[in-house]
Specification:
By secondary structure, the chain is an alpha/beta fold. The chain is 36% helix and 18% strand. It has an eight-stranded mixed sheet with strand order 3-4-5-2-6-7-1-8, with helices on both faces. The longest helix has 15 residues, at 108-122.
Amino acid sequence: MSISLLDVMTAPELFGSEFSGASWAAWRTALRAAFGLPMEAAERGTFAACTGREVPPTRPAEELWLIAGRRSGKSRIAALVATYAACFRPYALARGERGVCMVLAADRQQARVVFRYVRGLLDTPLLRPLVERETRESIDLTNGLSIEVHTASYRTVRGYTIVCAVLDEVAFWRSEDAAEPDVEVVNALRPALATTPGALLVGLSSPYAQRGLLYRMHQRYWAKDDPSVLIWRAPTAVMNPTIGRAVIERARAEDPVAAAAEWDAEFRRDIESFLSREAVEACVVAGRRELPPVPDTAYVAFCDPSGGANDSMTLAIAHAEGRGDEARAVLDAVREVRPPFSPEAVVRDFAETVRAYGLARIVSDRYAAGFHAELWEKQGIPHAPAEKPKSDLYRELLPAINSGRAELLDHGRLIGQLCALERRTARGGRDSIDHPPGGRDDVANAVAGAVHLVLGRRPCGWEDLYGDNAQAAPSGADGGGAEVGVGA
């Protein structure tokens, strides 16, 4: 007879000292529901409030989606489920086959939060002998199973025999090469889970925007008596009653919409996707990685600078085809250098690329007014401050993308970053466009700036920017002027 998760959770010789207290009562009810275990009358009320369902399940779910507020204990519960799945559940594995319990997050650093809790749970007298080998990102057990840390990549999760997959903070997964990495990752996981009887998929997260896999699953299965999928949604105060009410009330007073997501487990209503994937892909020229310089063509360049420690430094080069309202921006080249790097070395390389396309001037934003400006001047490339902030460049990019007036390169990181951009409405009513939490938009920002330089109308004259090459000014601006620029 196999031991249940609730037995493991509350046994004094295992984890009872951590999880048997009153503050974990709601989590115990959630896990009873997930594994089809009997409930007491009081637990049924919690179950109904957190699932929208009246009748508790009588058999284990195949997928469990736990949506809870910040500091509610999600990571510790994720570790508990992973440890239980790897140490206490039987699986029919072939000779020489190793089953894997995966802990997946947006990056390895986030996944290691859960992994550290797993290590702590395994460091008990009863479970310590099970550990056969341990590395920074995996623990091999003597029963033929392993617990491993993985990033949210649909490419790297294939080929495993998966007995359990724990998706940590899945609402915040982002990728440079997929518009919807959460969907792609789970699509890659489900076949491996389906071939392992008793396998379990667990998604845990605070909610975010009204999009993505977590939101779709909530829309489809919340309050539905589906035996295979259980959606559990509850605020922090329910899942962790030890959190001080004053902290939550202060957050609500400062930003009610953000607090509703952070603490009350409600999907945000003030965030939406900025560009649709369909519109972006319609502008991509399939297979085109770069266009070489062509004589007598006026190019513009836009660079998003970086200090070299955290963000990439990027450069985009483009030119115009057509005139007036028929003009379109053609992206010729994209350069990205990821940190860490020497800004001086990157500016030197970018300057060579700028000169290869016949350009000799550049505009820098306020960020680069200091040492970045000096670095460009060392390369003999004059500059002037950019006028528009990043959000304004993205606003101008929107009609260019939607109308097909931009030809984009087949560049995975560019496509992913453009599709991930978010429009956020502040309480004052003004919109801002930026990358999502934990995301990047360095490539997208440079390309948006280049498109602006091609299609935008500028107050300066061509002579100010191109000097003796003023006759080669981009034709699409109708004499409005363009810049060789460094963007926000």
